[in-house]
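Need tokens for this chain, all 308 residues.
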Amino acid sequence: MRNKVTVVGAGNVGATCAQRIAEKGYADVVLVDIVEGLPQGKALDMLQSDPLVASDAKLVGANSYEATAGSAVVVITSGIARKPGMSRDDLLLTNMKIVQGVTENIVKHSPNCIIVMVANPLDAMTQLALHVSKFPRHRVVGMAGILDTARMRTFIAQELNVSVEDVFALTLGGHGDTMVPLPRLATVGGVPITELLPPQKVAAIVDRTVKGGGEIVALLKTGSAYYAPSAAAVQMVEAILLDRKRILPCAAYLDGEYGIKGVVVGVPVKLGSKGIEQVIEIKLTPEEQALLKKSAEAVKELAQVMKI
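Here are the structure tokens for all 308 residues:
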């Protein structure tokens, strides 16, 4: 019997996430959205591609949560994008209401699930879901560092004209301007990039990584990235469903690790069938530690606005 995965939000990120999970064939997928007909139509379209991609996964779309009952993993992508004239606090409070309602429904129908948060502002929404669900911290995890790391790996591979498979990179901190890429730990085939690239090239890669999402938004004009974000979320779902014990940078609630307590921030974790099975603490330089603390403080400010 296959596991069930629910994806909340049938927009670009959610629908692409559902498609990728179903095509791998190891989970049935429920796609939920408030827009009548949207998740049903997209799920039916995906289902009809099963014979062409050799998958027997079942897909259904729904406007309510009854069909999601008993989900092993729930991926939350719902929320709105920032609109002209809307402040960050406006966006935060609007998405807060959406994510709060979604989380309450998830808890009601799948009380034993693991929540993977993709909605923005990512770290704050992860902390909100943890607060609302009352789940233990290992069962609520946010997708951010995997995406940011994938962008950094891409830029390194492009610069050096090498396979992305041989590139390792790591980013910590919040998903946004306060993220903390760690170029000193980035390697190609085990060789530090600091030995392969001049400092100005490394600095340019770091800067492009931090601005990676904005670069895509500027090119698209309307909308934002969804291919890479969905792939990042699916890597997390796979690690959980298959108990792969992957070491991945994720948004996790810290309780003293890295000297940070009571806030969600991006750090390396071991991801398996129980969710976050271990927070991996690496030794940071004083400068890196200060940047990570600054990033955590930014998330804490958003949590205070939400009064959680």
